Amino acid sequence: MLNDIKEIMYTEEQIQKRIEELGEELTRDYAGKNPVIIGVLKGVVVFYADMVRQIRVPCEMNFMTISSYSGTRTTGNIQVRQDVTVDLKDRHVLILEDIFDTGNSLSFVYDHLMQHQPASLKICTLLDKPSRRKPGVTLKADYVGFTIPDAFVVGYGLDYNEYYRNLPFVGVLKPEVYQK
Ligand code: IMP
Ligand code: MG
Q1: What is the pLDDT of residues 67-116, one digit of tens each?
Q2: Which residue from 3, 79, 104, 129 has the fewest beta carbons nearer than 10 Å?
Q3: Which pTM does this prediction carry?
Q4: pLDDT reported for residue 105
Q5: Residue 86 neighbours by CB distance under 10 Å
Q6: CA of 104 to the centre of ligand 1 (A)
Q7: 5, 65, 66, 105: which to mutate for ligand 1, most atoms within 8 A of CB?
Q8: Which ligand has the nearest atom to the CA of 72?
Q9: Residue nearest to atom 16 of ligand 1 (CA)
Q10: Do 173 and 4 touch, CB atoms closer than 8 A?
Q11: Is residue 111 flagged as an active site residue?
Q12: Residue of 90, 101, 150, 159 marked active site
């Protein structure tokens, strides 16, 4: 598995330090708001578990699963596979995501959750790849861990064909792995 990694982009320590900083911000911003924190599965699981433990306010946890991403390419055509199981009306809702790439997924999730008429809806993403944003996507992340260049990354929840999610760091995959 490690042989497939070209370089480590962020170490475990760098990620944890950044999450602590984000946690301070989120703890301040969500004080008294009892937010619902929604994770977009599965890429977010590792970040989610670390992030929520740095948000020191009472909060609810909920998840949704969307299709569709295969290999290194997004396929467009997104659907809800598993919806949230909490009433979001008039709630303060925070979306946690692993990566904001073309923006297709987050735009879909954002619009979907907006239909529930939350009191507020914000986005926190570990990684942001603004250079990959599809023209026309105006959505912005409210909280960003790291802004990264256009490279395909894996680890810390991020996968390539479902593998590498359990690497503790964020690394760049060797191009020959996905060009095979
Ligand atoms: P978007 O819809 O193009 O913004 O893509 C968002 C989703 O694509 C993320 O939730 C990831 O699951 C996946 N994704 C995008 N870029 C990468 C990457 O560099 N590595 C692994 N997964 C990625
Ligand atoms: Mg993925």
Answers
A1: 875 555 555 689 999 999 999 999 999 999 999 999 999 999 999 999 99
A2: 3
A3: 0.94
A4: 94
A5: 15
A6: 9
A7: 105
A8: 1
A9: 101
A10: yes
A11: no
A12: 101
